[in-house]
Design goal:
Helix content of chain A: over 70%
Largest interface: A-B, 27 and 36 residues
Largest sheet of chain A: 2 strands, antiparallel
Number of strands of chain B: 10
CATH superfamily of the largest domain in chain B: P-loop containing nucleotide triphosphate hydrolases
CATH topology of the largest domain in chain B: Rossmann fold
Helix content of chain B: 25-40%
Strand content of chain A: under 5%
Shape of chain B: globular
Distance between the termini of chain A: 14 Å
CATH architecture of the largest domain in chain B: 3-Layer(aba) Sandwich
Oligomer: heterodimer
Strand order of the largest sheet of chain A: 1-2
Strand content of chain B: 25-35%
Number of strands of chain A: 2
Number of helices of chain B: 9
Number of domains of chain A: 1
Order of helices and strands of chain A: HHHHHHEHHHHEHHHHH
Structural class of chain A: mainly alpha
Radius of gyration of chain B: 17 Å
Distance between the termini of chain B: 37 Å
Strand order of the largest sheet of chain B: 6-7-8-3-9-10
Chain lengths: 339, 242
């Protein structure tokens, strides 16, 4: 399994397609059969699946390690929330500016990194630095509540989908739409000229450049696409939770949470981030539930669990769960098997 | 006979060490020129200067009269120079075909057209049956061929080959020599090659340039150059012992 053939369901088998359709149907009807709690868990799963896909565009497709994706979530969240609270501009219009601000931030980081040859781990440090600056900076911007938090007005029983006000089920379907949209967008990008160039840059930058790829441009577009998509996740978060605290939204921990599903599911694959979110989030929730049911007070156990899950994956399935599962269950065709 | 590539008084130092010193030569259109010399003579540095990996300290490089000095590798590629790497650099996780598609996309916007061109190039290099294999799973001779295929797919007017025959068995060398000769004769492709396999150099090249310690010490027809006492002393003498 390799390359596009391993990442893109173009080589999907009949069995793989059946499973995909079944999963899609299941998710489409889930709110009709699941209770409120389960819907909220699924919404969280879908949110992580979505931002994981957004992060994957940078790391998985283009080989750019970002450990500060909370920055784009936070900017998207704060910009859209501020527009709504202060100017009455709804999220559907606000998301345009939210994405724009995020892309500008991403391009500043990208420019600094790619112009001055900041590579690999050092580039990752640069992304952390910007997220941390935002975290501390937003603590002091009283216009959006500072460290005391920023709150969106909540009306009980409101149903105004145009302003993303409504029941948890509305948010569930919005999150599902984001995941499906990101999946199709990622697939289209990978099959495009730009997608080939991203993969080439990820694999061998020197050879990519010698093959006519403008490294700076390819990397900048990856950052722009990834930060724009991630900002949408932030908009969703602001209107779903209705409160924003810089300590949480921009935290290093959040940046890590964003990338775990993609690592567990399979970096660079289309399905990996989604599968990873479906594995990690429910397990984390179940753990929290069991601890509370047992009457224990063990803060940080979830983080410990995530850490352990990561170790298991890195040791036993470094390519992620999805490539292995797809091979074992014959969900995708292996290279050389023909169409 | 006009020169396609002209290299004029090219110099490059690395921390005071003269890697290439005032090297000049020309590659006539439609010909094959071999760049030979002992290890550390500055051959690959000369290649990298032509390909835009780093700018020269002095001198200039022109292709069809157009100044390429200071351009980046992707711009040099766009100008019409394709290159291979001495230490092969395949896009390991991509398939063989996808590797070549990346090359074809240098001049092609449509992925579908690029894929058709890639298949044609793979046929040419006898790699078609490996098209759907991951590049990292190829044997060394096949990886060398893949380097050539990817560079060819960018549709260059000048092909830079950096030791594509090194490490190949004699039969594989002969196959590659045939492919290169064919590309040169039938399609008029101009080739500049760094090569240690003298048998191939003698068989293929119209002209040979010899570098030693960053300086050009000989430039002429293959038969003349191998008879040059300086060349024998600095390079061929040592090689002949192999």
């Amino acid at each position: 399994m390799s390359g596009l053939s391993g990442m893109v369901p173009s080589g999907i088998t009949g069995r793989g397609m059946a499973l995909l359709v079944l999963a899609a149907l299941g998710l489409a009807v889930a709110p009709f059969v699941a209770d409120r709690y389960l819907v909220s868990v699924l919404t969280t799963v879908l949110w992580f699946a979505y931002v994981g896909q957004a992060w994957n565009v940078m790391m998985g497709f283009s080989g750019l390690l970002s450990l500060g994706h909370a920055l784009y979530v936070g900017l998207g969240a704060y910009v859209s929330a501020a527009l709504f609270v202060h100017f009455g501009i709804g999220p559907w219009a606000g998301m345009v500016l939210a994405m724009l601000v995020s892309v500008v931030a991403g391009c500043v980081i990208g420019f600094l990194g790619f112009r001055f040859g900041v590579k690999g781990v050092h580039f990752a440090l640069l992304t952390i630095a910007f997220a941390e600056v935002a975290r501390i900076g937003f603590d002091h911007i009283t216009w959006v509540g500072g460290s005391g938090g920023f709150f969106l007005p909540v009306e009980a029983g409101a149903s105004d989908p145009l302003n993303l006000r409504g029941s948890p089920v509305l948010f569930y379907y919005v999150a599902l739409a984001l995941v499906v949209g990101a999946l199709f967008l990622s697939r289209a990008l990978l099959h495009s000229r730009l997608g080939y160039q991203w993969l080439a840059v990820r694999e061998e930058p020197d050879a990519a450049e010698a093959s006519g790829v403008d490294l700076f441009r390819a990397r900048m577009t990856a950052v722009a696409v990834s930060s724009a998509l991630t900002a949408l996740g932030g908009v969703f978060q602001a209107f779903y939770f209705n409160n924003l605290f810089p300590e949480q939204v921009f935290s290093m921990g959040r940046s890590i949470e964003i990338i775990l599903p993609a690592i567990v599911g399979g970096i660079g694959t289309l399905v990996g981030p989604i599968l990873g979110a479906f594995i990690l989030t429910p397990l984390g929730e179940a753990l929290t539930f069991l601890i509370e049911a047992g009457g224990l007070d063990l803060p940080g156990l979830k983080q410990l669990f995530y850490g352990a899950a990561l170790v298991v994956i890195v040791v036993f399935r470094p390519e992620g769960v999805w490539p292995w599962l797809a091979r074992r269950l014959r969900l995708v065709r292996q290279p050389g098997e023909g169409a | 006979m006009t020169a396609l590539l002209e290299v004029e008084r090219l110099s490059k130092r690395f921390r005071g060490l003269k890697a290439v010193s005032e090297v000049s030569f020309a590659v006539p259109e439609g010909r094959i020129l071999a760049l030979i010399g002992p290890n550390g003579a500055g051959k690959t540095t000369t290649f990298n200067l032509i390909a835009g990996v780093f700018p020269p300290d002095e001198g200039r490089v022109t292709l069809k009269g157009r100044n390429l000095t200071g351009l980046k590798p992707n711009q040099v590629c766009a100008a019409g120079i394709g290159r291979t790497f001495q230490i092969v650099k395949p896009f390991g996780q991509l398939t063989v075909e996808e590797n070549v598609v990346v090359g074809a996309l240098a001049r092609e916007r449509s992925v579908e057209t690029a894929r058709r061109q890639a298949r044609a190039v793979l046929e040419r290099l006898e790699l078609a049956d490996q098209a759907s294999r991951p590049a990292r799973s190829l044997t060394l001779p096949d990886r060398k061929r893949l380097e050539v295929a990817r560079a060819l797919a960018t549709r260059p007017t000048l092909l830079l080959l950096d030791e594509v025959l090194a490490g190949l068995r004699p039969t594989e060398v002969d196959r590659m020599v045939e492919v290169l000769r064919d590309l040169n004769r039938r399609e008029g492709l101009t080739i500049l090659m760094i090569e240690h396999v003298m048998r191939a150099v003698m068989a293929l090249s119209d002209r040979v340039v010899v570098l030693d310690h960053g300086e050009k010490i000989a430039d002429g027809a293959p038969a003349e150059v191998v008879a040059d006492p300086r060349v024998v002393e600095s390079y061929l003498g040592a090689e002949a012992l192999d």
